[in-house]
Write a structure and sequence with these properties.
MetI-like_sf, single chain, Peptide/nickel transport system permease protein, globular, MetI-like fold, mainly alpha, MetI-like, 2 domains, about 75% helix, BPD_transp_1_N
Length: about 350
C-alpha cells in the first residue's frame, strides 16, 4: 500500500517550534562560547607577545636610529614609536594596530611585516603540509602494525624509529641529509626553494610553488621545486611520523585489549577486519587531535630546518629578524604562528565533536 504523502512517518516526528527554538538557542550559545574562547585566547597571545617585546634586551629604537644617534634623535624616534607612553596605553594601541592588520614596519626589509609574512608564509605552509602528509601516511600504518604485532621484531624496529624521531636533533639530521642525498648521491636538489634560473618562471597564484607550477602546466618547474622540497619535507615528516606512530600504537593497544575485540576474534572475524574496522575506527577521533597538534608544530617549529635548507619561509624570516634585532618582524611572526596554532587546535576540537557524538 502507498503511504499518504500528507502523513508523517511514525519514526520521524515533526519537531515543535519550541524545540526548534531551543535547538537554535543552544547552537547560538555554543557558537558564542567558541568565539569568546577564541577572542580571549588571542587576547592572551597578544599580551604575551607585547610583554616579550618589552622584556627582551633589545631596544627597538636603537634598531631604527642606530647606536650612534644623538640623544635628541633617539628621544624623538622613541616618542614617534609611542614607547614613551604608559604600558597600558601602549598595549591598547598594539591591540588596535593588530586588529587592523598592522604589524608594523620591518627594519630588515623596509616592508610592512604583514606584507613580508604574506610573502614567506606559503613556503612554510607548503613544506609543513608535505611533511605532515608523510607523517600521517607512514606514521599511522606503522603504529597500527606495531600494535597488532606487539612484542615482535617489527614492533621493536618501529619503536626504535619512533625513539630516533625524539632523540635525533633536527639540525643534525638535516645536515646529514644534505651531505648524503644532495652532496654525495645528487638524488635531490640543494638548499633553497627553486633553482635561480626558474625563479619567477610561473605566476604566483596561490604562493604554493608546486600547485602554481601545475596550474601553469610547467612540468620542468614542478620537477625542480619537488626536488628541492623533498628533503626538508622528509626531515619534518620523519619527526612527525615518530610522534604520530607512537600515539597510534598507544591508542591501538588500548583498543585491542577491549572485550569487543576478543569477542570479534572468537566469532571468527578476519584479523584485518578486527584491526581496521573494529580497533582502528574508535581511535580516528583522538588521532585528529594528534595530527592537528603535529601539523601546528611543523608550522611553528620548522625554524631550524628552514635555516639549514635556506628555505624562504617564516622560520628563516624569524631567524633573520632575530639576528637583526627586528622586533616588529619577530613579534609579528610569533603572533601569526600562535594564531595558527590556536586555529588548528580549535578546528581539531570541532572535528572531534562532529565525529564523536559523545563530545557534543
Amino acid at each position: 500500500m502507498s503511504q499518504d504523502p500528507q502523513t508523517e512517518p511514525p519514526h520521524s516526528p515533526r519537531r515543535s517550534p519550541a524545540a526548534l527554538r531551543r535547538g537554535a538557542r543552544a547552537a547560538a550559545i555554543d557558537l558564542g562560547s567558541v568565539l569568546v574562547a577564541l577572542a580571549l585566547t588571542f587576547l592572551g597571545l597578544l599580551a604575551i607577545t607585547f610583554v616579550i617585546g618589552r622584556v627582551v634586551p633589545i631596544d627597538p629604537v636603537v634598531a631604527v636610529v642606530g647606536d650612534r644617534a644623538p640623544l635628541a634623535v633617539y628621544e624623538k624616534a622613541r616618542a614617534e614609536m609611542g614607547l614613551d607612553r604608559p604600558l597600558l596605553v601602549q598595549f591598547a594601541a598594539y591591540v588596535g594596530h593588530v586588529a587592523r592588520g598592522d604589524l608594523g614596519l620591518s627594519v630588515s626589509t623596509g616592508n610592512t611585516v604583514a606584507a613580508d609574512l604574506r610573502r614567506v608564509f606559503p613556503a612554510t605552509l607548503e613544506v609543513a603540509t608535505l611533511g605532515i602528509l608523510i607523517g600521517v601516511l607512514l606514521g599511522v600504518p606503522m603504529g597500527v602494525l606495531a600494535a597488532s604485532r606487539q612484542g615482535s621484531l617489527t614492533d621493536q624496529l618501529i619503536r626504535v624509529v619512533g625513539l630516533l624521531g625524539y632523540a635525533v636533533p633536527a639540525f643534525w639530521l638535516g645536515l646529514v641529509g644534505l651531505a648524503v642525498f644532495y652532496a654525495h648521491y645528487r638524488w635531490v636538489s640543494g638548499p633553497g626553494r627553486i633553482d635561480v634560473y626558474f625563479d619567477g618562471a610561473v605566476e604566483a597564484r596561490t604562493g604554493l610553488l608546486l600547485i602554481d607550477s601545475l596550474l601553469a602546466g610547467d612540468i620542468e618547474v614542478f620537477g625542480n621545486a619537488l626536488s628541492h622540497i623533498l628533503l626538508p619535507a622528509a626531515v619534518l615528516g620523519f619527526f612527525s611520523l615518530a610522534y604520530i606512530g607512537r600515539m597510534t600504537r598507544s591508542f591501538m593497544l588500548d583498543q585491542l585489549s577491549q572485550e569487543f575485540i576478543t569477542t570479534a576474534r572468537v566469532k571468527g572475524v578476519p584479523e584485518w577486519r578486527v584491526i581496521w574496522r573494529h580497533a582502528f575506527k574508535p581511535i580516528r577521533v583522538p588521532l585528529i587531535t594528534v595530527v592537528g597538534l603535529s601539523y601546528a608544530g611543523l608550522l611553528e617549529g620548522s625554524v631550524m630546518i628552514e635555516t639549514i635548507f635556506a628555505w624562504p619561509g617564516i622560520g628563516n624570516y624569524l631567524t633573520t629578524a632575530l639576528l637583526n634585532a627586528d622586533m616588529n618582524a619577530v613579534l609579528g611572526s610569533t603572533l601569526v604562528v600562535g594564531a595558527i596554532f590556536i586555529g588548528i587546535n580549535k578546528m581539531s576540537d570541532l572535528l572531534y565533536r562532529l565525529l564523536d557524538p559523545r563530545a557534543r
